[in-house]
Amino acid sequence: MAIAEEEQVSALKQKLRELVESIVDRDDYTVHAADKAIHALSALKDLKSTTFHSTNMEHTPVPLHFRCPLSDHLMTDPVILTTGQTFDRPFIQKWLNEVNGVCPQAQEVLSLCILTPNFLLQGMISEWCKENGVDLPKPIFDIHDEQLTEAHKHRLRSLLFKLSLSLSEQKEAARELRQLAKRMSAIRTLFGNSQMVNLLMRPVSIGTASMDPDLHDDLIATLLNISINDTNKRLLAENEKVISFLIDSLKSGTVQTRSNAAAAVFSMSSLDSNKHIIGKSGAIKYLVDLLEEGDPLAMKDAASALFKLCFARENIAKTVREGAVQIILGKIVDHVLVDELLSLLALLATHSKAVEALVNHGGVRFLLDILRENTVERIKENSAVILHLICYHDREKRAEIREEEMANGTLSRLVQNGSSRAKRKASSILHCLGIDESTSHNNPLPSVTINSTSSSN
Description:
Elements: H1 3-25, H2 31-56, E1 78-80, E2 86-88, H3 89-98, E3 116-117, H4 119-131, H5 150-162, H6 167-183, H7 185-190, H8 194-200, H9 213-226, H10 230-237, H11 240-252, H12 255-268, H13 272-280, H14 283-293, H15 296-309, H16 313-321, H17 324-333, H18 338-348, H19 352-360, H20 363-373, H21 377-393, H22 398-408, H23 410-417, H24 420-433, H25 437-441
Antiparallel strand pairs: 1-2, 1-3
Helix pairs in contact: 1-2, 4-15, 5-6, 6-9, 9-12, 11-12, 11-14, 12-15, 14-15, 15-18, 17-18, 18-21, 19-21, 20-21, 20-22, 21-24, 23-24
């Protein structure tokens, strides 16, 4: 167990001991004290569960980019600092509180201590866990989280009522609802019924075109925060008013509002049934538009949402039809979000229409350049995955790939020095091209044996 975890366990036990003693020793103990004891015990249980799962993962090495640089454990709630580094939320939050806002990697004082959820990485971690039979540990919550009281419930009802009053009162209520839903998991739980969600949607009846931009953004962000609760995801996706509001927000909100709407789509798409509902809603077109038009953070949210949606096969075809392949290639050429967009492109390339679009827009030459010149392991790996799919789906492009291999030995070097997945893909491409892999290993300009019978596996 890491030192940080041991300290947290010790603090939880001490807090629980004090609470239990006060309850046992006093006849007039409060319900609030009992709630706090239950919360501390629950946090201790979650932490024990996390430690148990980490022991289960000893025989399944966690990729380095999925580990928090502070805890060295699999991240459960990855967030990005303004410096661009990603950490697990509870550990970076504790670090920033103790070290006065200094980034642990860049050693820079942060002018803004903003923690932006890294939804794309979170999705990739989730899929890796599924593929490797690893249970993703529950996020570790701070033991000082606020407790839900009757006062909070009354305040929530009051805020929802204010959403039916004047614009200034609606804006004030929406701003506070956004913060409460972000900070308190118990508040998110209270939105687990249709009536509460419909009360939240009251201001939407006027339509987004004439809605105040601040009110619009706060309502969308509230939906995003509510969707963090797993039991709310299905409820939100099956609410036609919510889906319509998300679509309108992706289409015509400010860039920040569109970004939050994309993040909400990503969050809700964790459920397979929601992937189909959202895919049929028309959201994909506007996510692709945001991918093209947004700032880097908005583009990352759009890419994350599309990545998650495209695990439903029919959504890949829709994404390709909306021109995503061309847009992604253009962004990568401009060195924008190369790693994230190549991950999305590797998923899209499992569809023949995406391969066709890649070939038509010069994707083969570009991927070969990346394999030859880029040094980032994951970027090279995804490039090899895409090139492998092209090689097996488009026979005409094999000559171009073979020519590159004869001139530079790019794939042979990848077989020798790449990640295990990149090595497998590069080796398979060489086999498809009829190139003797054993000869290639010892010769930067590999000898070529034309294999006229080679075909797709």
